[in-house]
């Protein structure tokens, strides 16, 4: 089975590297990339041939579209003539619906809409898949296998996708933002930057592992840290005063709204 990845930017390379780590033969993988310098970089790094979109579409059984939402319609027009019966088209683009994908491809094409995230680079990705109108269980299994090479996979109704994008698609950026803020806070308190970074990163990793391994509700875990009259209670009062919880809800709502706008643009 030949897999073609169209658009090898951040997410395209993340998926490509995951497929290689999971043992896919480089000979079964093809990539396309509009920027010549980026194409040369990837050829050198992975030993994979970069070809044009038409050639990739001709040779592939599974086509994975990883361009920006704004570039999707023109890409669909380029690859549509080469789509054959039995091909599966998988889109990783935020906000592009299966209806838009199907509308730009030959009638009856099997499409899958996926929202992945960048922790796939370290095989800890979260990918949510939604099937198009002509997608069979067999096609879903192909898409699921592909994404499972670099993390967890779930199937969701397409109506969830804007919310999924706002939580797990954009989510790593919120976490990195909090990490940046904690490191800066450590530096404000006089810690060397390297020490503040090590303390913050291990704390995040430990807390995430605790949630996963204990299955305990995060409220209970937070209460276990919060001694009466202690340091944590003092800190949390300031976060509440600044309405940080409400800010998170508004931020995630804004991301979901933007995902919806992308499908209409
Ligand atoms: N970066 C992220 O965390 C996530 C990104 N996504 C989705 O993945 C898609 C790609 O995002 P990024 O990788 O971050 O963007 P990017 O800008 O890093 O990569 C897109 C790549 O596609 C190339 N490209 C554009 N049009 C092309 C064409 N017609 N033929 C060949 N190559 C073409 C560009 O030169 C660029 O290298 C987007 O649709 C985004 O919504 C989804 C989840 C997470
Ligand atoms: O910011 C974006 O639009 C993309 C989709 C989810 C994460 N990055």
Automatic annotation (TrEMBL):
Protein name: Pyrroline-5-carboxylate reductase
Enzyme class (EC, first level): oxidoreductase
Keyword field contains Amino-acid biosynthesis: yes
Name of the gene this protein is made from: proC
Positions of the Pyrroline-5-carboxylate reductase catalytic N-terminal domain: 2-95
Transmembrane segments: none
Residue stretches making up the Pyrroline-5-carboxylate reductase dimerisation domain: 158-262
InterPro entries hit by this protein: 6-PGluconate_DH-like_C_sf, NAD(P)-bd_dom_sf, P5C_Rdtase_cat_N, P5CR-like_CS, P5CR_dimer, Pyrroline-COOH_reductase
Organism phylogeny: Bacteria, Bacillati, Actinomycetota, Actinomycetes, Micrococcales
Keywords associated with the record: Amino-acid biosynthesis, Cytoplasm, NADP, Oxidoreductase, Proline biosynthesis
EC numbers for this chain: 1.5.1.2
Location(s) in or outside the cell: Cytoplasm
PANTHER family reported in the protein's UniProt record: PYRROLINE-5-CARBOXYLATE REDUCTASE (PTHR11645), PYRROLINE-5-CARBOXYLATE REDUCTASE 3 (PTHR11645:SF0)
Family annotation (SUPFAM superfamilies): 6-phosphogluconate dehydrogenase C-terminal domain-like (SSF48179), NAD(P)-binding Rossmann-fold domains (SSF51735)
Entry annotated with the keyword Protein biosynthesis: no
Function: Catalyzes the reduction of 1-pyrroline-5-carboxylate (PCA) to L-proline.
Catalytic activity of the protein: L-proline + NAD(+) = (S)-1-pyrroline-5-carboxylate + NADH + 2 H(+); L-proline + NADP(+) = (S)-1-pyrroline-5-carboxylate + NADPH + 2 H(+)
Family of the protein in this entry: Belongs to the pyrroline-5-carboxylate reductase family.
Pathway where it operates: Amino-acid biosynthesis; L-proline biosynthesis; L-proline from L-glutamate 5-semialdehyde: step 1/1
């Amino acid at each position: 089975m030949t897999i073609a990845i169209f658009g090898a930017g951040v997410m395209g390379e993340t998926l490509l590297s995951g497929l290689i780590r999971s043992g896919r033969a480089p000979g079964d993988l093809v990539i396309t990339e509009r920027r010549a310098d980026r194409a040369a970089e990837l050829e050198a790094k992975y030993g994979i041939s970069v070809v044009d979109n038409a050639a990739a579409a001709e040779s592939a059984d599974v086509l994975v579209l990883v361009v920006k939402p704004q570039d999707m319609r023109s890409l669909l027009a380029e690859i549509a003539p080469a789509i054959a019966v039995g091909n599966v088209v998988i889109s990783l683009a935020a906000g592009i619906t299966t209806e838009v994908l199907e509308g730009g491809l030959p009638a009856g094409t099997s499409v899958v809409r996926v929202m992945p995230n960048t922790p796939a680079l370290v095989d800890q990705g979260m990918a949510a898949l939604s099937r198009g109108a002509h997608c069979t269980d067999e096609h879903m299994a192909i898409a699921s296998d592909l994404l499972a090479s670099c993390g967890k996979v779930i199937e969701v109704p397409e109506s969830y996708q804007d919310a999924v994008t706002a939580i797990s698609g954009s989510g790593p950026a919120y976490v990195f933002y909090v990490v940046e803020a904690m490191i800066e806070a450590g530096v404000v308190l006089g810690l060397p930057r390297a020490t503040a970074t090590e303390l913050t990163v291990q704390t995040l990793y430990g807390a995430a592992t605790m949630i996963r391994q204990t299955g305990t509700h995060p409220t209970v875990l937070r209460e276990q840290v919060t001694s009466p009259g202690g340091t944590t209670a003092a800190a949390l009062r300031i976060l509440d005063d600044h309405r940080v919880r409400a800010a998170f809800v508004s931020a995630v709502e804004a991301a979901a709204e933007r995902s919806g706008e992308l499908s209409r643009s």
